Amino acid sequence: MTTYESSDSTAAQSLPPAPDREPQLVDRSRKTKVKALLANAGGANVARVILGAVIALLLVVTWFGSNPSLNDAGNPSEWKSQLSQAAIKNGLNNGDTKGAPQQSVVNGWYANDIAIVQASQNSYIAASTTRNGSLLALVGLGFAGELIIRGVERSRRKR
Question: What residue spans carry the Polar residues bias annotation (predicted)?
Fold first, then answer.
């Protein structure tokens, strides 16, 4: 049979010592958290966060605001149906021609129908190019902003 031995001297030694002072209460208000974050982060990191947020917002606005489909350029999905309609109309008109002069007129109508689709495609490409240029300019501004922040940060360290 096992026996239970209690030793009061070892139990008292294994407990941690009582603190000399009372624990401090932590203020959980938002203002204190923001102030502490700003104080710990430093001005350069706060500037980076603000720059990143502004650039991200501008990128999203530019992406959705300069959608080529919204600029009267039509959709690429519409072009195939427009071209097939022009081809069907050309086929029907070609069946009614009698002679070269009428064939020239029908070919002109077909060229006009195709020109409308080509103008739509050119407008779409121009809008896409403008959108890409705007996005690239914003990325360049973000990169330049980071370089400026690094330069200011480096000049403050040397002082």
Answer: 1-13
Instruction: Write down the pTM of the prediction.
Output: 0.55
State pLDDT tens for residues 45-100: 888 889 999 999 999 999 888 887 776 667 777 888 888 999 899 888 888 888 88
Non-local CB neighbours of 44 within 8 Å, separated by 6+ positions: 149, 150, 152, 153
In this structure, are residues 149 and 47 in contact, taking their beta carbons and an 8 Å threshold?
yes
The closest alpha carbon to 150, from 59, 42, 53, belongs to 42
Give 121's Cβ-side CA count (13 Å radius): 12
Question: In the chain, where are the structural domains located?
Answer: 43-158
CB 122 within 8 A of CB 150: no
